């Protein structure tokens, strides 16, 4: 049956001054409906428009869901997160490499039983939906069973996700596998899940320091023979990481060249962090049209550094936002947008309100070439949307009383909002979360 949802004029009834009906970012028109409605059928949006127009198209059997006074937006896309690190969140006192050695690698060793993986995945998905995230790009365990399990669970929720077994062939002896074994697992997961329902496979070499020339060579072969798969890894996150990488691969003039040599730098490659990039790296990456997964909360948490939003915007980079859970200590993309703004300010750059919302929704979908399916609320797209209720946060609600236009309104929602204002989350038209306190 159809689900019918709407927002009403009351949503922004406090706004004074001019509220434009549409705003632009990256030549993309943002449309704001004061009193809107969406018709959803079999997981897809079949109509969207003004409430009164939509109401006239309704059939007697249609089920109407009333979200008066709330705001409906596309679900958030978290373009970089680790599905194996939930129990290790909020680790104290270390930067990247010692944080990995002291907290993350031991935690991932302990993750290995099916029972603990299943429990942790269920907690993680519940928290993602509670935060309004409907799509993830995730790093999974290196084992077939541990990785397969999250594909299975996300498939059960009909979720769109891009994921892969994390390839580690060098480093912590309890975590690593040999290259051949990793590739067999990759092949098996790709065959089973890539383009199955809403799922995509991403070849996931963790980072250059956890790979060898041999395993990177195997990754190159995999990418060549599976050109429609994604690739995700970390790049230039931390200065010590960069130093160690250049010492390990002395033939490389910079970090990016390690991945270039192994054919991993292309338009389906998602690079996490990308903080300490040279001018040449920025240039080669934007020319190759790679996907930048920017994770400001994680970068602040681990003291990794400040992403250059000015460069990304100037170079028209394919910018997406990620939590990098669990180096990022929240799953809220609203909180990520907030830190993105602050980090940009530290470089005296004003990151625009809509650029941030775009990077967490349609911009991310475009970067991932998934914009035929997700990222905005348009007829024919998959019905991944969230219902925001700014009034659920007393302070935000008070601030919005003096909001002067739509941009200020959205800016305040992203500056003060978090999971408390997510009233409901829909994945493929199904209600996967309702906030009982809204
Ligand atoms: N670099 C390699 N592995 C990781 C990880 O798990 N988290 C972060 N933030 N950086 C990494
Ligand atoms: Zn990461």
Automatic annotation (TrEMBL):
GO CC terms: cytosol
NCBIfam families documented for this protein: guan_deamin, PRK09228.1
Gene: guaD
Domain of life: Bacteria
Catalytic activity from the UniProt record: guanine + H2O + H(+) = xanthine + NH4(+)
Amidohydrolase-related domain mapped to chain residues: 72-432
Cofactor: Zn(2+)
Membership in a protein family: Belongs to the metallo-dependent hydrolases superfamily. ATZ/TRZ family.
Cross-referenced InterPro entries: Amidohydro-rel, Guanine_deaminase, Metal-dep_hydrolase_composite, Metal_Hydrolase, Metallo-dep_hydrolases
Metal-binding in keyword set: yes
One Pfam family matching this protein: Amidohydro_1
EC class name: hydrolase
Keyword Metal-binding listed: yes
Name of the protein this chain belongs to: Guanine deaminase
Organism expressing this protein natively: Aquella oligotrophica
């Amino acid at each position: 049956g159809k689900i019918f949802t709407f927002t009403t004029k009351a949503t922004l009834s406090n706004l004074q001054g001019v509220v434009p009906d549409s705003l632009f970012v990256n030549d993309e028109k943002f449309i704001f409906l004061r009193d809107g409605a969406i018709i959803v059928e079999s997981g897809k949006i079949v109509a969207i428009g003004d409430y009164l127009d939509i109401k006239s198209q309704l059939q007697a059997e249609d089920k109407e869901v009333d979200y008066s006074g709330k705001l409906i937006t596309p679900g958030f896309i978290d373009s970089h997160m680790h599905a194996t690190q939930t129990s290790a969140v909020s680790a104290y006192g270390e930067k990247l490499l010692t944080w990995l050695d002291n907290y993350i690698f031991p935690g991932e060793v302990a993750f290995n039983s099916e029972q603990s993986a299943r429990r942790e995945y269920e907690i993680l998905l519940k928290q993602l939906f509670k935060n309004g995230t409907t799509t993830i790009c995730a790093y999974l365990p290196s084992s077939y069973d541990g990785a397969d399990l999250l594909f299975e669970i996300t498939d059960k929720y009909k979720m769109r996700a891009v994921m892969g077994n994390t390839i580690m062939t060098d480093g912590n002896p309890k975590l690593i596998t040999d290259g051949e074994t990793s590739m067999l697992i990759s092949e098996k997961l790709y065959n089973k899940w890539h383009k199955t329902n809403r799922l995509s496979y991403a070849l996931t070499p963790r980072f250059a320091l956890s790979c060898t020339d041999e395993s990177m060579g195997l990754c190159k072969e995999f990418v060549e023979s599976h050109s429609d798969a994604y690739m995700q890894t970390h790049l230039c996150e931390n200065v010590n990481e960069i130093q160690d990488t250049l010492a390990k691969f002395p033939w490389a003039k910079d970090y990016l060249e390690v991945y270039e040599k192994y054919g991993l730098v292309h338009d389906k490659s998602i690079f996490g962090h990308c903080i300490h990039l040279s001018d040449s790296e920025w240039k080669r990456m934007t020319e190759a049209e790679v996907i930048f997964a920017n994770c400001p909360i994680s970068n602040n948490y681990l003291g990794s550094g400040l992403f250059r939003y000015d460069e990304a915007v100037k170079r028209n980079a394919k910018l997406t936002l990620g939590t990098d859970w669990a180096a990022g200590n929240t799953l809220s993309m609203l909180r990520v947008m907030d830190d993105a703004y602050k980090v940009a300010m530290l470089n005296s750059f004003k990151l625009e309100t809509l650029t941030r919302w775009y990077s967490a929704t349609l911009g991310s979908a475009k970067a991932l070439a998934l914009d035929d399916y997700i990222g905005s609320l348009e007829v024919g797209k998959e019905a991944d949307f969230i219902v925001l209720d700014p009034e659920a946060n007393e302070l935000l609600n008070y601030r919005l009383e003096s909001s002067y236009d739509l941009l200020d309104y959205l800016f305040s929602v992203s500056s003060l909002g978090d999971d408390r204002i997510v009233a409901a989350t829909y994945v493929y038209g199904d209600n996967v979360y309702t906030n009982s306190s809204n």
